[in-house]
User: Fold this.
Amino acid sequence: MNRRRTALLSLTGLLATALTALPAAPAGAEETEQVRNGTFDTGIEPWWTSPNVTAGVSDGRLCADVPGGTTNRWDAAVGQNDITLVKGESYRFSFAATGSPAGHSVRAIVGLSAAPYDTYHEVTPQLSVSGDTYSYTFTSPVDTTQGQVGFQLGGSADAWRFCMDDVSLLGGVPPEPYEPDTGPRVRVNQVAYLPSGPKNATLVTDATDRLRWELKDADGDVVRRGWTVPRGVDGSSGQNVHSIDFGAHRTRGTGYTLTADGETSRPFDIDASAYERLRLDAAKYYYTQRSGTPIRDDLRPGYGRPAGHVDVAPNQGDGKVPCQPGVCDYTLDVTGGWYDAGDHGKYVVNGGISTWEVLSTYERARHARTGEAGKLGDGTLNIPESGNKVPDLLDEARWELEFLLKMQVPDGEPLAGMAHHKIHDEQWTGLPLLPSDDPQKRELHPPTTAATLNLAATAAQAARLYKPYDKEFAAKALAASRKAWAAALAHPEIYADPDDGIGGGAYPDDDVTDEFYWAAAELYLTTGEREFQDFVLNSPVHTADIFGPLGYDWARTAAAARLDLATVPSRLPGRDKVRHSVVKGADRYVATLRAHPYGMPYAPEDNRYDWGSNHQILHNAVVIATAYDITGATKYRDGALQSMDYIFGRNALNISYVTGYGDVDARNQHSRWYARQLDPNLPNPPAGTLAGGPNSSIQDPLAQAKLQGCTGQFCYIDDIQSWSTNEHTINWNSALTRMASFVADQA
Ligand code: 9MR
Assistant:
């Protein structure tokens, strides 16, 4: 520590000289130590410890005896408060540490010492007995004088000893520029092209003239040659690119590579089997998202965990959840359902669109020419209900449906029949945190028209799909749907508060004409009744141009109705026109895809990628795929297939956005329980988990620190802290589920 002390002293000396000799230095230009007594030369002041930790100076270091038997990381800690952080300034956070016995890790954070305890930088290194030094650079996203350097030591069953020294937080260091490793400049679908499908790639190059390309098999033998097509500068990446079409090669095989301009792509297959796997993996994602039930390790090795939010401490549980103060005076049992994403919230609007898309994957398989409903039938998904003679996909969706029905306001209450918008924690919780370890109070938020119509739509759809398997449940769902429909008509303009985003997302939507259209469409398709038919035909949404560049999502639900009216058999007057409108939408997306040098059906205005852009791309692909189901025309089949290439690596970052698929895949999605990046004892997300993908608005601090000024496709980072570019959600995986099934069916 003496060395450090000298370094600090001489730095102070330098600073003093600089200050007298030169005009005022620009803020942040000098390196300044923010931590007091990081070398423990004067005892442990001003460091604090949690009451259960005993700390003192030993051999010039701070050593802490940590008790066993705590749950969360922050249940035992050492730290220092009152640290000033300056927004936009970069800091080097470094320390030396030991842990004994071996095998323990420390969660070291720089964050906020007061609620909501945001962390601006955190790492969880595994400690050694002999000791290591650790050093990290990050940029502060905020101005605060309430900063904290904290070492969280809890969560271990056994007692252990932690020692640290030379703790430093040096401000004014040069920021570490973030350069994503994008690998070879030839960008391919790293998973697989279908033997009979289109095969396209993108080459990043400064060359403006066409170049030779070669396709090699696994032995390195050239099996096909051709010329690239120069495409100029691509606005979505800022790169000069060429495209490559090797679709003429139809020979099945693994380990192919594509070479051009002296670069060789990552390997890929020409085969369908990966999509058969993906069909199941994408749908299996939902079991591990279940709330209210233990996840069985025998069904998902490595993913077993206790039931979340079932009234077992420290959970406050979802069995008797009150409203936010002043909203209602009853409690509801809202156990079950799927957790929305990496958080522990459950939201009816997002639950609704997700359930619709999972159910629609099944419904499409029943009606489409290439559909094979048995592929997601009983016994395919390895869930507790497998073997009950009900298609597994329906069993999985029912887990969420039962929850959605519980969110309905009970009879006798003023808003009876409406649905509460959401239920989640009172405050945001930190990462990592298993659902069963969440200690927060849970609350119901006010009912909204949007949530009510989501419930009406999905429950109506459920009523027709479950009828052959469970008449009683089908009848219950239909009754709930009718009740919700009537309640929405009686309260057509109750919107979610866009500022209600503490402890959970807001999911605000102040245009519900599309939700009304969707609910009416599902009720019509299930009952054939005149009231719903009239509502559909009279809705301005019925004839509106709804297939815009961004794709449908939880707030823009008209497409859910239009796709179902076009494909689920009915006697709707003018049904041909509805079918034609889908084909017209698909034509637009195919045109976008053909004009795009990365070959995808997504070109948002000014290349401003939206939150969850990956699922929007998949949704535009669903529209193209549906046009294929309607017309049987190859150009739609090919367009839908080609859209997958972007998701699997034919993109500016050369990454597959689906965990477990492709040579380099997204695997650190923002999640409180697939948090391996923060705790080596936790898993990464299961195979088949889609990352949200590039988001030009980069709302989270990590993305803001690393990706400032990013162009379209580059606004993404595979880091668990980047919740605005790298989360996973039930409504994004439903898009993957639907497309995976379509692609597998084309084999
Ligand atoms: O996907 C949602 C995105 O469209 C919204 O712009 C954003 C802000 O409201 O919220 C996203 O949804 C998040 C939700 O609010 C909470 N759970 C995680 C969701 C995905 O990030």
